[in-house]
Design goal:
The complex is a heterodimer of chains A (294) and B (274). Chain A has 294 residues and is mainly alpha-helical. Chain A has twelve helices and two strands. Chain A has one domain: MetI-like (MetI-like fold), CATH 1.10.3720.10. Chain A is 74% helix and 2% strand. In chain A, helix 3 runs parallel beside helix 7, helix 4 packs across helix 7 and helix 11 packs antiparallel against helix 12. The longest helix of chain B has 35 residues. Chain B has two domains: 78 residues, no CATH class; 164 residues, MetI-like (MetI-like fold, Orthogonal Bundle), CATH 1.10.3720.10. The chains are: A mainly alpha (294), B mainly alpha (274). At the A-B interface, helix 1, helix 3, helix 4, helix 5 and helix 6 of A face helix 1, helix 4, helix 5, helix 6 and helix 7 of B. Chain B: Belongs to the binding-protein-dependent transport system permease family. MalFG subfamily. Chain B: It is found in: Cell membrane. Chain B: This is Maltose/maltodextrin transport system permease protein MalG. Chain B: Its main location: membrane.
Chain lengths: 294, 274
């Protein structure tokens, strides 16, 4: 029996304390306000039988935000994956200027979402935005479109921008996956006379599957949490019609001063995220075991 | 025509729509930034003459210097703190087999999944209870803490790739663990530390929701909040100033990132496998 060495525990202690402090303390506080009667100034006035949660599920704005969050998350994640698979396949092949192409594809990752959203808010401006003038110059539209004035155009635009900024990370995951596929598999397949599409379906896709799973789960987590794009472009407006859970939460907490309900939303989201994370950890661990087994 | 040339043309044609979409915001930023004020609202693409002075005017009109300084201070100290605290952890995780190591890795993973937005109401109340609203030190501390998971994860994945032979040789020569760490190990991993530090810096530089919530007065705004405040809830927006500000705030980070992105990709990939 070896003696337990205390050194590694001492070494990880500071990072553990810091990482735990910013999570556990706020979560404890959220549980307190969510389950208590709270006034505008944040004073607790006793346990309230989950009134905040009941109020939440009776609030049409909250329910609409839940639906929109689902749409937002599914649309952005699916869109990003559909674009990223072919992009990764291209970037994985050998062609002139590949290094430059990689840098260009990764570029949106470097720009803060706030700045991206501000630029798009201006580019989508109805009267003087450069998207309208660009489209008009190309003869694609005759009259200016008021992109951000109604949810029917604003929300799809926000989804499109969400997809655009999610592509770099997703492509990165797929490039990692593609580089792990041995090249002789394809050589053998071509010798057997398999077409490019057959090779993709029979070799690439099955071997890419674990990376696909990881990309779906991680992107779901990030997109579900994504705040700046919608907040900067429309602040969930007009008339709450582009609100998702995070913007609804922010309004409840810092605009309307409904701290109790805001905390309840936070905890609902916390639970969902924990669920996603457990799914991810299990997927990642299965992947790791498969690697060690091979 | 050679096969590779043909393949290159097809690849670039297929990528073209994405390339246009990636460059479109940069074009919008740059072109608006150099338009004279009278032309900003008129819907044509190119200015009649580039107005470079906009960048100078913007500096004063948007309180850019102060916000830039705040961003530099917050990001630098958050990065330094996160790195200094993470090095021992990452070292322990790559050099010791101890009970709870796996559990700690998973704990880090979970903390990384929790975006600050979910905790922001609680975080605001905790910080407010210390009277630290509007204090950039508090923002620095929160950034540091939220980046710990990322830095430990990245560092330990790089550390694990450094062979132990050199350290073991130093121990045989009679060096203590601490001496070996400082004289042998750290010099070997300096590039990894530098890369991790730069990405942490970019994270902090670009952060939005914590700064938006914890900073209330203009003197303490960081760049993203300062630029956002020029747009949000205003009737007239000086778009040429706003675009000049986003351009100046974005370009250095974008260049840095473009230069270093391959290391991020490698570090993340290593972290996922190790």
């Amino acid at each position: 029996m070896r003696r337990r060495n205390p050194l590694p525990y001492l070494l990880i202690l500071p990072s553990f304390l810091l990482a735990a402090a910013v999570i556990i303390w706020p979560v404890y506080d959220l549980v307190q306000i969510a389950s208590n009667d709270v006034n505008r100034f944040g004073q607790l006035r006793g346990f309230n039988d989950f009134a905040n949660f009941t109020a939440l599920f009776a609030d049409p704005n909250f329910l609409a935000a839940v639906g929109r969050t689902a749409l937002w998350t599914v649309a952005v994640v699916a869109g990003a994956i559909l674009v990223s698979v072919p992009v990764a396949l291209i970037l994985n092949s050998d062609f002139y200027g590949r290094d430059i192409a990689r840098v260009i594809v990764m570029l949106p990752w470097a720009v803060s979402l706030t700045m991206t959203a501000i630029v798009w808010r201006w580019a989508l401006n109805g009267e003087s935005g450069m998207l309208n003038s660009g489209l008009r110059a190309l003869g694609l539209i005759d009259t200016n479109i008021q992109w951000l004035a109604s949810a029917s155009t604003a929300f799809p635009m926000e989804i499109a921008i969400g997809i655009l900024v999610t592509i770099p990370f997703t492509t990165t995951i797929f490039l990692g996956g593609l580089s792990s596929i041995p090249g002789d598999l394809y050589e053998a397949a071509s010798l057997e006379g398999a077409s490019g599409w057959q090779q993709f379906r029979e070799i690439t896709l099955p071997l890419l599957r674990p990376f696909l799973n990881i990309a779906i789960v991680l992107n779901t987590i990030y997109v579900f949490n994504s705040f700046p794009i919608i907040w900067v472009m429309t602040q969930g407006g007009p008339a709450n019609s582009t609100d998702i859970l995070v913007t609804h939460l922010y309004k409840l907490g810092f605009r309307i001063g409904q701290l109790g309900q805001a905390s309840a939303v936070s905890l609902v989201m916390f639970a969902l995220l924990l669920f996603f994370t457990i799914v991810y950890v299990r997927l990642a661990m299965r992947e790791e075991r498969a690697h060690q087994g091979a | 025509m050679s096969k590779k040339l043909k393949r290159s043309i097809i690849a670039w044609l297929l990528l073209a729509p994405l390339v246009v979409l990636v460059f479109f915001p940069f074009a919008v930023m740059f072109i608006t930034a150099i338009k004279p004020q009278t032309e900003v609202l008129s819907p044509h693409w190119w200015p009649h003459e580039p107005r470079w002075r906009n960048f100078i005017d913007m500096w004063a009109a948007t309180n850019f210097g102060q916000a830039l300084w705040n961003s530099v201070v917050v990001s630098t100290f958050a990065t330094l703190g996160a790195i200094v605290i993470s090095i021992p952890s990452a070292y322990a995780m790559s050099r010791f087999r101890f009970r709870g190591r796996e559990a700690y890795r998973q704990f880090l993973l979970i903390t990384q999944m929790l975006s600050p937005i979910v905790l922001v109401v609680g975080l605001f109340r905790v910080i407010a209870s210390f009277g630290l609203i509007d204090n950039i030190g508090a923002v620095t501390f929160v950034y540091m803490a939220f980046n710990i998971a990322f830095t430990v994860w990245m560092l330990q994945s790089y550390f694990a790739t450094v062979p132990k032979d050199l350290e073991e040789a130093a121990w045989i020569e009679g060096a203590s663990r601490f001496q070996t760490l400082v004289k042998v190990f750290l010099p070997l991993v300096t590039p990894a530390i530098a890369v991790t530090a730069i990405f942490t810096f970019i994270n902090a530089w670009n952060e939005f929701v914590i700064a938006l919530t914890l900073l209330r007065r203009q003197e303490s705004y960081t760049l993203p909040i300062q630029v956002f405040s020029l747009v949000a809830g205003r009737y007239t927006v000086e778009w040429h100033h706003v675009m000049a500000a986003t351009f100046v705030a974005t370009l250095p980070v974008a260049v840095l990132f473009a230069w270093l992105q391959r290391y991020l990709v490698r570090g993340l990939a290593l972290g996922a496998v190790k």
